[in-house]
Amino acid sequence: MTKVIGADICKNRLVFCCLESEPIEPKDEFWQTEFHTAFLNVEGLNLILAHNPDVVVLEPTGIHYARLWIDQLASHGIEVILVHNSRLPKFRSETLNFPDKDDEIDAYALACYWFRYHQSSRRFIQQRDPLIVRLREINLTLRSYNHIQNRIFNRIKQQLCWQFPEVSDRITMNAPLFFRWLAGITKSERYDNLLSKSIASSPISEQLKFEANQLCNYMEASKKLEIELESILLQPEFDSYRKVFNKFELGLKLSAMLLSYVYPIEDFLKDGKPEVIVSRGRISKKPTKKYLSLRRFRKAIGVANTREDSGNKKKSRRAGSALCREQLFLWSFRTVERNGSPFLKTELGQKLRGYLELKISKGKHRSKARASLISKVAEMLFNALIAEIVQ
Question: N or C: which end of the chain has fewer CB within 10 A?
């Protein structure tokens, strides 16, 4: 008999219940179920361990809140299963017939979900390789640091307009020496001489020096993270992935980001091969091939839509990683669309540029043509990874 804990993660506590079998009448049995609250301390952890669970099922709504519980439970030999945030609401309302939502109902629904679907691995979030988890953490941190740096940089430029106007229009983020000089970390005769001849209405303020120092700290921290990012990418298990990404000249950050969402590629397959089924087309009504593995791959990296049709209303929304989608669009702009890009000298670069121009020549708006290009690149990446790693 398997003891399953369903646990809803809150900011400072875990609300959970323990089930030993799937409820026959879930809504009726809910009222007979005992619930517990475990706080973020040793006593809270011991309260969970006292139930001797085989499995703990969580919904990682706030991954920072979930991480402590995941790490602690795993260290005690307890299997931790994660249910995607999008799956639980429908299961709770339609399968269990709970129109309401609270912490106890969610905890109960998570335990019931495991009993109903535990033999289908795709119903759960796959536990990632620790290196892949770290890659994703670094990518998210770098993105956050980049936003902070841009805000600080813009404030510095505004203050330079009247404290050092001679450089305010020329300084970019690619001038670390200037910012280190401005913060008082490094000496520079060049900037000392420029400042001595400046028509500035005020000396360099302590506030400006402080913000320059902040910017230098974030730049240094970002540089260290990028070095770690590169060291992870150079691990032998990622050689084949890196080889494919290099063909598309995706760069360090985008390669690391994509790797964190598509590794291992085998997760998208069925019995070690791309899953393809034949079913009747929704519009043509004729037998149509559905490339399910490719669809899952596209959704994972954010270049596919999820349909939300209702009656005569046709509606869709973006699915998957918005971060990957955004970076792929930027890659397209810098690498495929920009004249003079070294990538355009390659056969693959010329092919992708030709594909983009063909879409535009047929009347597609550039933004939609770019979306078509990204979808095409996703398909090419998937096929290249399959050819390199699986077949």
Answer: N
